Amino acid sequence: MAGNKSTFKIFSNEDQIFIGEILSSPAIGKMFSKKSDYLSCINEFKKSIKYFGLANQNKNTTAIFVLKGHVEVEIIEKEDCVFINVTFINNNTISGFLGLTDTKGFGFEKFNECYKQKPHVLVSLICNESQEETLIFGVNNVKLTTL
Question: Which residues pair with 28 in a beta bridge?
């Protein structure tokens, strides 16, 4: 992919990657410690898709339903944790986030149970600083590798 621009931000050490179940759906996500990092990730994501969005101002929650676009999720089970890579592709620009969960346990088990029933993923982006959350529905380009 010569000529493609890639921007992957590791962000802060205080950011956390997680996996589990939300609203009876297999879910992955990232909790950002800084609002600026959270907003940067949301903006890059919105540039890469066509979407329908709903906001609940009282709860600081936004739901985004992917209508068209290119979002890839790669989940790799390791011995004691889970590697997660979320990629947003917009023309020749590739952005997203990646990281490891602290542990592999109940959350990963619930994810697997739900994923067998619904082979798509809900992506949750949370800002710890402002208590905002964005839930992204309709991500179905998922590659899951288990041991």
Answer: 19, 123
pLDDT (tens digit, 9 = 90+) per residue, 36-62? Answer: 999 998 888 888 777 777 767 667 888
Q: How many domains does the chain have?
A: 1
Full domain range(s) for residue 41: 5-145
146: tokens are: 């288990």
- What's the rounded mean pLDDT across residues 55-81? 83
CB atoms within 10 A of CB 85: 17
Residue closest to 72 by CA, chosen among 139, 118, 1, 145: 139
Tokens of 141: 């380009």
Do the Cβ atoms of 97 and 8 come closer than 8 Å? yes
Which uninterrupted H or E stretch holds 110?
helix 106-117
pTM above 0.85, yes or no: no
pLDDT in tens, 122-132: 999 999 999 99
Which pair of tokens denotes residue 140? 């179905």
